Amino acid sequence: MQAARDRLVPDVAADGLRVLFCGINPGLMTAATGHHFARPGNRFWPALHRSGFTPRLLKPSEQEELLSYGLGITNVVARATARADKLSAEEYREGGRLLALKVARLRPRWLAVLGVTAYRVAFDDRKARVGPQERTIGDTRVWVLPNPSGLNAHWTPATLAEEFARLREAAQR
């Protein structure tokens, strides 16, 4: 697994998506497999399904299917690490700058950043909370979702899915 450290994982993205989900950075399992949110304990895929974004529970290896639902995945920081706390504030800030350029180019309706702390550092917004943000990137609205990592235990699978569903409802309007 250590061989995957610093490996880049390609985005699942296209122009004009309904929602571009944005993880903090790839974990080592994701980097080793090339599939986003690949660690078995990660709750991204179950939350996506339980919230109604996908009609069935997708496996990480089926990530390209997201495009057919108008969904995609990218990361704030491209570099893979064992844990997000291995990233520097400079990496987050540079990641936020590059993410804003990517969003301006791809023009999704919503950018959903998965992790309020990552969002706060990347976009220099210390007061951000989970939910819709006032910030836009061009015409793209921004929503901060809880980090779906199993380490973020105070968000249960049910409350995580509820928050994802709030975004899904907003993205359908």
TrEMBL record:
Transmembrane segments: none annotated. Keywords: Activator, Chromatin regulator, DNA damage, DNA repair, Glycosidase, Hydrolase, Isopeptide bond, Transcription, Transcription regulation, Ubl conjugation. The keyword Ion transport does not apply. One of its GO terms (molecular function) is pyrimidine-specific mismatch base pair DNA N-glycosylase activity. GO terms for biological process: base-excision repair, AP site formation; epigenetic regulation of gene expression. InterPro entries: MUG/TDG, Uracil-DNA_glycosylase-like, Uracil-DNA_glycosylase-like_sf. It holds the Pfam family UDG. Residues 10-171 form the Uracil-DNA glycosylase-like domain. The keyword Nucleus does not apply. It comes from the Bacteria. Its EC number is 3.2.2.-. NCBIfam families: PRK10201.1. This is TDG/mug DNA glycosylase family protein. The lineage of its organism: Bacteria, Bacillati, Actinomycetota, Actinomycetes, Kitasatosporales.
